[in-house]
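Whiteboard transcription, Tuesday session. T.W. wrote the C-alpha cells on the left side:
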C-alpha cells in the first residue's frame, strides 16, 4: 500500500471521529442571521464575514477583507459587506484551486412554516435544519473541515488554495464583479490559479451524487403598460377606455403555451446543438420521473414523463416563467379598482449559445409586434436585465479528478449533470480566471435551500467533508 493509499483513510477516520465538532461549528454559523436582502441585518452579514475570517486564520491562511462599496436601499446608501479573500499555500510545484462560496442567506421566520427556529440548528431524523445549513454555510465549512483534517494527521495540503467568500450572493452579488475584474484580476490574483471550484448547488435527486458542468442564464423582463388620465366611471360603466390591465394580460398570455413552449419568434434558433456525447449523458443519468412526480405532488408531468425530455427541458432548453403584476389590486375581497399603470414581470432561463442581447431583442421585437396588433392607445415600456448561461466540458481532467473523488466516497459513478437554475458568479469566475470551473455539490435535491425547513443531511455533511478532502488529493495528482 502506497503512502497515498494510506493517507485518505486516515483523513476519513479523523472526520468520522469529529462529527460533533462539525455540527457545533455549523450551529454557530447558522445562528448568525446574515440576511443580505435586508439592511437591518447588514451588521450580521459583516459579523458572518469576520467569523469566517477567524476560522480561516486558524487553519493558517492569510486573509484580507476587500471593500466593495455601497448599495442603494430605499433611497439610502448602505455599505456592502466586505468580500473575504484568502490564500493558503504558495508552493509553485502544487496545483492551486480557487474556491468560491457565500455566507449570506435568504430571509426566514418561524411563522413562514418552519418547524423550529430557522436560525437555531436542530437535528431531526439525521437532518440538520436551519437557514444556511445547505446554502451555503455547510459547504463553506466543509472546506475548512477538510483542511483541518489534513493538518490533524500531520500531512500538508496537496494543493494551494485561494478563497473568495462573499456575503451578497442571495442579493445579486453586488460589487463582486467589479472586485473580480477591476481589482483581483489586474492584481494577478488568478495568475497562479489552475482550477476553480464552487459548492453552491445540489444533487439532481436525493441519493445519487453528481458533478455539475452547466447552468442556465437568466433574463428578467418588466413590461409596463400605462394609460392616460382616465375617468373611472367611464371605464367601469361605459367601456370607453383601454384598460392597462387588459393590455398587459393580453401580452403576458402570448408568451408561452400550456406545454411550456416559448412562443417568442426564433427563441430556439440559437440553442446549442446536441452532440452524441451529451445525448448519452441524459440516458445514463439516475433520475426517476415517477418518484419525481410523487415528490412534487403532480398528477402528470410534461413531455409525457420521458426522463430524457424532462431533463433536457430543465437544463438545455430555454424556459419562461411568469412572476407577477405590480400595481394591480391584490388584496382579498371584491375590488373595482382600475389601475392606471401596471408592470408585468417574467423571466427566461437562457442556455448555451443564446446571448442575452440577442434574446432581449427577440423579446422586444415580439412584444412590440403583439402590441401593434393589439392597437391600444396606451403606452408600452419594456426593460430587461440579463446574465449569460455557463457550461464546461465534463471530460476535462479537472472533472475526471472530481469523479474519482466521488467514486472513492460514495462507491458509485457520479452523474454529470447540468442545472435549471442560475449562479451568475460561475461565468464571472470562469472569465476572470480563464480556468476550468467545476460545481461540486454537498447538498441533496430535497434540501429546500430557499424555502421553509432548509436542511442538510448529516450524511451529506460528513461524507461531503471527505469528498472535499479526496477532491483536493485528486487535483493534487493532476499534472502541473
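and on the right, the sequence the group agreed on:
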Amino acid at each position: 500500500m502506497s503512502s497515498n493509499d494510506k493517507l485518505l483513510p486516515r483523513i476519513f477516520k479523523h472526520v468520522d471521529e469529529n462529527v460533533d465538532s462539525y455540527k457545533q461549528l455549523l450551529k454557530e454559523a447558522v445562528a448568525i442571521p446574515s440576511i443580505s436582502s435586508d439592511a437591518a441585518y447588514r451588521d450580521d452579514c459583516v459579523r458572518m464575514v469576520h467569523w469566517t475570517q477567524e476560522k480561516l486564520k486558524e487553519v493558517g491562511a492569510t486573509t484580507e477583507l476587500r471593500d466593495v462599496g455601497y448599495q442603494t436601499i430605499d433611497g439610502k446608501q448602505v455599505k456592502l459587506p466586505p468580500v473575504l479573500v484568502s490564500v493558503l499555500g504558495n508552493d509553485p510545484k502544487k496545483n492551486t484551486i480557487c474556491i468560491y462560496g457565500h455566507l449570506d442567506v435568504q430571509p426566514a421566520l418561524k411563522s413562514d412554516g418552519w418547524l423550529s427556529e430557522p436560525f437555531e440548528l436542530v437535528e431531526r431524523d439525521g437532518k440538520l435544519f436551519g437557514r444556511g445549513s445547505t446554502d451555503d454555510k455547510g459547504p463553506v465549512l466543509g472546506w475548512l473541515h477538510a483542511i483541518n483534517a489534513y493538518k490533524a494527521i500531520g500531512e500538508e495540503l496537496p494543493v494551494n488554495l485561494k478563497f473568495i467568500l462573499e456575503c451578497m450572493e442571495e442579493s445579486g452579488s453586488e460589487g463582486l464583479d467589479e472586485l473580480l475584474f477591476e481589482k483581483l484580476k489586474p492584481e494577478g490574483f488568478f495568475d497562479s490559479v489552475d482550477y476553480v471550484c464552487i459548492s453552491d448547488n445540489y444533487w439532481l435527486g436525493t441519493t445519487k451524487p453528481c458533478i455539475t458542468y452547466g447552468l442556465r442564464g437568466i433574463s428578467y423582463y418588466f413590461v409596463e403598460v400605462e394609460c392616460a388620465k382616465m375617468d373611472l366611471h367611464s371605464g367601469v360603466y361605459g367601456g370607453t377606455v383601454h384598460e392597462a390591465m387588459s393590455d398587459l394580460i393580453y401580452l403576458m398570455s402570448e408568451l408561452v403555451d400550456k406545454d411550456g413552449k416559448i412562443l417568442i419568434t426564433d427563441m430556439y434558433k440559437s440553442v446549442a446543438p446536441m452532440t452524441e456525447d451529451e445525448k448519452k449523458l441524459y440516458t445514463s443519468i439516475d433520475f426517476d420521473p415517477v418518484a419525481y412526480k410523487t415528490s412534487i405532488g403532480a398528477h402528470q408531468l410534461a413531455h409525457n414523463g420521458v426522463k430524457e425530455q424532462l431533463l433536457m427541458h430543465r437544463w438545455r432548453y430555454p424556459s419562461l416563467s411568469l412572476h407577477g403584476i405590480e400595481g394591480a389590486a391584490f388584496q382579498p375581497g371584491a375590488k373595482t379598482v382600475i389601475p392606471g399603470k401596471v408592470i408585468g414581470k417574467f423571466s427566461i432561463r437562457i442556455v448555451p449559445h443564446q446571448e442575452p442581447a440577442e434574446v432581449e431583442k427577440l423579446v422586444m421585437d415580439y412584444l412590440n409586434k403583439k402590441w401593434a396588433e393589439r392597437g391600444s392607445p396606451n403606452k408600452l415600456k419594456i426593460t430587461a436585465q440579463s446574465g449569460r448561461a455557463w457550461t464546461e466540458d465534463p471530460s476535462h481532467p479537472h472533472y475526471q479528478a472530481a469523479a474519482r473523488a466521488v467514486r472513492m466516497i460514495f462507491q458509485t459513478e457520479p452523474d454529470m449533470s447540468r442545472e435549471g437554475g442560475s449562479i451568475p458568479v460561475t461565468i464571472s469566475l470562469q472569465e476572470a480566471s480563464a480556468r476550468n470551473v467545476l460545481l461540486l455539490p454537498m447538498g441533496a435535491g430535497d434540501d429546500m435551500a430557499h424555502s421553509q425547513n432548509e436542511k442538510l443531511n448529516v450524511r451529506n455533511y460528513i461524507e461531503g467533508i471527505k469528498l472535499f478532502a479526496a477532491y483536493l488529493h485528486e487535483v493534487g495528482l493532476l499534472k502541473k
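Someone added at the bottom: The mean pLDDT is 93.
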